[in-house]
């Protein structure tokens, strides 16, 4: 290989003792370099590479060094488009109702939800739509959402049975999951879901009991924490469903999350193979939840807390170490046939717009008109490779825009929700170092130094600090 270049997607974490953690976001190569490695890396780009040299082979294999003629960004875009345009999987998000029995003030759908359930003719149209896709799909993924979807378990059962019948007959892989507040999730309901191929469930707990019940109470104000905990305990050991506990965090409940982790341990929910916890910031993303903007956390402050919480939850055997993934920004909203289906048959591309009628892209009863809808076309035409923020960022191969909704409908974003970049950008070094710790590559007491090792988001611009 002649005239090699340093990759634009190298991330270097300086450590003490002259060592460096090296990570390439395109290839996800991850390694620990000493001074000798660093000198070889620097000199390799100043002259022709002798590919027979073992260390240089490692650099090339890891993507840290590339040929001058290699179009890195073009290759990333090609791989991105292949994943985004794959037509083998059809993903549908179905709302059997938009009603909810909880009164959460930060809900992106607002508190005033209509009491309506999915019409039978909408269910028929969904079945017909799936049948029309049978010749080309190899898998069907159904996500149940609301409102609170378990307010209408009969619709979930009947529609699941009909979709499963199609998939079984046509040899199509079927997968399903559900996002629920957990109030109705007893063992009988969970068993009904499981036999209909619902594989995973997400339930929210927002801190210890007092904090949770202040913000995730019933519409009448009654508490919910204890019932949710008992439902989880009833299900986790008896039905092989994967249960994810989501914790929404803002300035009001941030001090209670450690206590929640301790509560889960005391309830014998730690160390369960089918239960894990993850954390997410509350953001003011729609008009319906602007009232909580003053309580949201800045991304750096939230990132500091999140790293601490993940470490603690990991110690308590409630989570795994979060790792960067490839193209995490490719959501169902960006794929042509993937749709969010409301009870009345309205179609959206994103869950966050379901309460905003002006953002709908069409109707399940007029699918042929989708291609002419300007909102639909905006979703399909959007690409992170058209956004300067993304194309100039080293995280492009992992983040790929993070959330297209923030670019397409920024008018509703308030506070730091308006910043499109994910939390990873603000705490990348800390999370990668933790991964290295668990691999036995480094030690916090001897290798980490806040002054030189901590994440500086400005260093993640493509082409910046390519030299370690």
Q: Structural class, from helix and strand content?
A: alpha/beta
Measure the end-to-end span.
22 Å
Q: How many strands, what sense, and barrel or not for the largest sheet?
A: 9 strands, mixed
Radius of gyration: 24 Å
Described by the principal axes of the CA atoms, the overall outline is: globular
Number of helices: 17
Q: What's the arrangement of strands in the largest beta sheet?
A: 11-10-9-8-7-6-12-13-14
Q: Provide the residue-averaged pLDDT.
A: 93
Unreliable sequence segments: none
Number of strands: 14
User: What percentage of residues falls in helices of 4 or more residues?
Assistant: 25-40%
- Proportion of beta-strand residues: 5-15%
Pfam family, one: Radical_SAM
GO molecular function, one term: metal ion binding
Cofactor: [4Fe-4S] cluster
Keywords: 4Fe-4S, Iron, Iron-sulfur, Metal-binding, S-adenosyl-L-methionine
Please specify the SSE layout and strand pairing:
Elements: E1 4-6, E2 10-14, E3 20-24, E4 30-33, H1 35-44, H2 54-61, E5 65-67, H3 72-84, E6 89-94, H4 120-133, E7 139-144, H5 153-170, E8 173-179, H6 187-194, E9 198-204, H7 209-215, H8 225-236, E10 242-249, H9 257-266, E11 275-281, H10 299-315, E12 339-341, E13 346-348, E14 362-363, H11 374-381, H12 388-391, H13 396-399, H14 404-408, H15 424-438, H16 444-447, H17 450-453
Parallel strand pairs: 6-7, 6-12, 7-8, 8-9, 9-10, 10-11
Antiparallel strand pairs: 1-5, 2-3, 3-4, 12-13, 13-14
InterPro entries: 4Fe4S-binding_SPASM_dom (IPR023885), Aldolase_TIM (IPR013785), rSAM (IPR007197), rSAM_sf (IPR058240)
Cofactor: [4Fe-4S] cluster
Keywords: 4Fe-4S, Iron, Iron-sulfur, Metal-binding, S-adenosyl-L-methionine
């Amino acid at each position: 290989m002649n005239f090699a270049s340093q990759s634009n997607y190298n991330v270097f974490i300086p450590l003490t003792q002259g060592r460096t953690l090296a990570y390439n976001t395109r290839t996800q190569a991850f390694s620990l370099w000493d001074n000798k490695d660093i000198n070889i890396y620097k000199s390799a780009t100043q002259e022709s590479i002798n590919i027979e040299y073992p260390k240089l082979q490692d650099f090339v294999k890891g993507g840290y060094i590339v040929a001058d003629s290699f179009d890195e960004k073009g290759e990333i875009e090609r791989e991105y488009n292949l994943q985004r345009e794959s037509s083998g999987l059809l993903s549908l998000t179905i709302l059997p109702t938009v009603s909810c029995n909880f009164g959460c003030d930060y809900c992106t759908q607002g508190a005033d939800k209509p009491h309506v359930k999915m019409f039978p003719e909408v269910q028929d149209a969904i079945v017909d739509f799936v049948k029309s896709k049978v010749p080309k799909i190899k898998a069907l993924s159904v996500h149940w959402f609301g409102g609170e979807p378990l307010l209408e378990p009969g619709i979930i059962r009947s529609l699941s049975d009909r979709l499963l019948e199609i998939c079984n007959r046509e040899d199509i892989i079927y997968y399903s999951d559900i996002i629920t507040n957990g109030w109705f999730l007893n063992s009988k309901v969970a068993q009904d879901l499981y036999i209909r191929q619902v594989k995973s469930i997400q339930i929210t707990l927002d801190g210890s009991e007092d904090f949770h019940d202040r913000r995730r109470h019933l519409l009448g104000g009654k508490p919910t924490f204890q019932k949710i905990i008992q439902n989880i305990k009833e299900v986790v050991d008896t039905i092989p469903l994967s249960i994810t506990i989501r914790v929404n965090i803002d300035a009001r409940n941030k001090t209670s999350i450690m206590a929640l982790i301790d509560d889960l341990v005391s309830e014998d929910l730690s160390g369960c193979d089918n239960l894990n916890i993850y954390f997410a910031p509350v953001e003011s993303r729609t008009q319906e939840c602007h009232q909580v903007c003053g309580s949201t956390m800045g991304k750096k402050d939230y990132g500091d807390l999140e790293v601490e919480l993940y470490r603690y939850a990991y110690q308590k055997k409630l989570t795994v170490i979060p790792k960067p993934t490839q193209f995490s920004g490719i959501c169902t909203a960006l794929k042509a046939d993937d749709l969010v289906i409301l009870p009345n048959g309205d179609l959206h591309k994103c869950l966050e717009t379901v309460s905003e009628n002006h953002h709908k892209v069409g109707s399940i009863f007029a699918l042929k008109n989708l291609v002419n809808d300007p909102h639909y076309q905006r979703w399909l035409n959007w690409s992170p490779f058209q956004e300067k923020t993304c194309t100039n960022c080293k995280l492009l191969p992992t983040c790929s825009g993070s959330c297209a909704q923030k670019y397409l409908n920024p008018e509703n974003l308030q506070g730091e929700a308006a910043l499109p970049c994910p939390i990873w950008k603000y705490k990348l070094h800390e999370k990668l170092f933790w991964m290295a710790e668990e691999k036995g590559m480094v030690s916090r007491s001897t290798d980490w130094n806040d002054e030189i090792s901590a994440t500086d988001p400005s260093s993640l611009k493509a082409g910046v600090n390519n030299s370690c």
